[in-house]
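Q: Sequence in, structure out?
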Amino acid sequence: MAELRPLSAELRHIAVTELNEVEERVPADLQALRDWIAKQPHLKCRQDDQFLIAFLRGCKFSLEKAKSKLDSFLTIKTMMPELFANRQMDERNIALCRTGTYVQLPKPFGPGGPRIQLTDYSKFDPKVFKLIDLFRYQTLLMERQIREDDNSVISGYIEILDMGSMSLSFLAQIDLPLIKKMGVFGEKAAPARIKGVHFINCPKEAAALLNMCKSLMPAKLQSRFFVYKNLEKLNEVIPREYLPEEYGGSNGRISDIIVNMEKQMLEYNEYLKEDNQYGVNEQLRPGKRLNADTLFGIEGSFRKLDID
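A: Exactly. Output:
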């Protein structure tokens, strides 16, 4: 197996103190996870170190939690083909990337800090794209993040959502069942830690919808869920230097970030093609089989979202 990517001193400190990572024990932890996968007749899973370590880190090195999260990751991906089947950085995803609706900023929030992700819905044309297109594109970025972004896996991520100039026809597209499914995926499957969700420039129509969504979330996430009237208020929490040049900061120019993201994601097409072979076969699952109703029913909504 390929060696793990070395960590910066800052990220190594966080991995040790917050995620219970013991460097000398990591090879044995990875092997234990691979041994478990080999005994699961229903799972077909990647087994390289860099992929598996994300689940151990995402579960603070609890092997049992990592097994559960990995099973859920493959199960939900298999049961949500509308988001996860036959994904490529194709013309549609390239076009969506080029809109700049969703960008991952190059500089994290401080040394060893969380990754910052910026979503600007004013750049999303609902006549051209649907909400599911954006979610599908985000899953591509997530796959790469799991493999390549140690800041995101170890320190988590911060979402900034700019709702200014957002089309009301986009709001009309909001699909609560789909959003709920994404919530279940975030709760049970994604090896990620949400550190803060920051909304700026919210029109009152969007604020009403956000308040409804917020009321469904657990107290811990509600405490990390912020709405600001304008950029100046956001800068009291996230200094301007961490924002892109278009927002008065020094964290990259969005046009350059888009070019770089497109190049990086095109290089992942072979990886995404391989991804089609991985998933679950419920006919072979030991014990009770799962289905979409048991996974995405009223139970397991946003209420138990794992955000730690």
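Residues 9-84+284-298 form a domain with the Helicase, Ruva Protein; domain 3 fold (CATH 1.10.8).
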